[in-house]
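User: Last request for today: this protein with 2-Phenylacrylic acid, please.
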Amino acid sequence: MTNTTLFDPYTLGAIPLSNRIVMAPLTRNRAGAGFVPGELTAEYYAQRASAGLIVSEATQISQQGQGYQDTPGIYTREQIEGWRKVTAAVHEKGGRIVLQLWHVGRISHVDLQPGGGQPVAPSAIRAESQTFVNNAFVDVSEPHALGIDELPGIVDDFRQAAANAIEAGFDGVEVHGANGYLLEQFAKDGANVRTDAYGGSMENRARLMLEVTAAVAREIGAERTGVRISPVSPANGISCSDPQAQYDYIVDHLDALGIAYLHVVEGATGGPRDVAPFDYGSLRRRFSKTYIANNGFDLDLATSHLANGEADLIAFGRPFIANPDLVERLQNGAPLAEIDPATLYGGGAAGYTDYPRSTETSDS
Ligand code: 8OZ
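Assistant: Here's the final one, the structure of the complex with 2-Phenylacrylic acid:
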């Protein structure tokens, strides 16, 4: 047991944090034309800058990597300039923010892909999942299997996106290796039936995630690089027959890269923590640097996790949507506001930047 609390400062690799509360990545679908984040997004993140660390919403590294309408990118000059406004606004408030680098793989639709082509995947297996495009939920499109000669280009897109993130003023990046998207599609055998060096064995399935992370860490520094994983989450129609062995292997090799943090969605993303048996302590022990735990935490569970040494930092997702001052509310025991599900994805300021701070509520 330790006396560490959520409100104690922490040093995450190269990034000093004022507390141990992380704002988890949250997709909000409010990017403007050209998938560029604007002033409203800067205001949204600045309102939440009292988090020790903000992990941005998932951000596509290329047009091919996009799977939902109006999500932001980090592959054009305009996107870099848009994000610069966000990082400046967060830093102005004393906050810290990393960018989550995203390639959706098969969780996409032809209407979002370059030239209206098929989405890409490790294998030509369509996910039992839906995406949001043309203002409607629709089944994802049939993907095509990536040729082995196409993989270096994807690794390089991640590398370039990481460089762009640093140019845009981010404190670091998080590689999105979770939730049924491209890197997890390679890692989990429910989506990967390849017979080349990127499929079959545990080592082969882990290869793309490890190559991407190594390229990103080489580009911007391991001390500014994190990875998010979700070993047992069925999100986006994915499955894995050997998650403990596979993720023990992945985490051993992520640790060898010397990256700053591991961010683990424990259980089903946005759902039950006990969806399947899994020993997260095994990942914690294998990873020598910062372990961020996520999924379904409240103050009590977060406090006991820190006290028991089960995590260094705790990431809260949905509570940050309706509580821009979540850190202060947790610290003061103030009640938490509930989200309006109708304004989660897309739209403007309503349900995005208009949730009041606790003090504003009691003053009015
Ligand atoms: C909700 C809606 C769309 C995408 C994830 C990036 O689950 C997402 C996402 C979440 O990681």
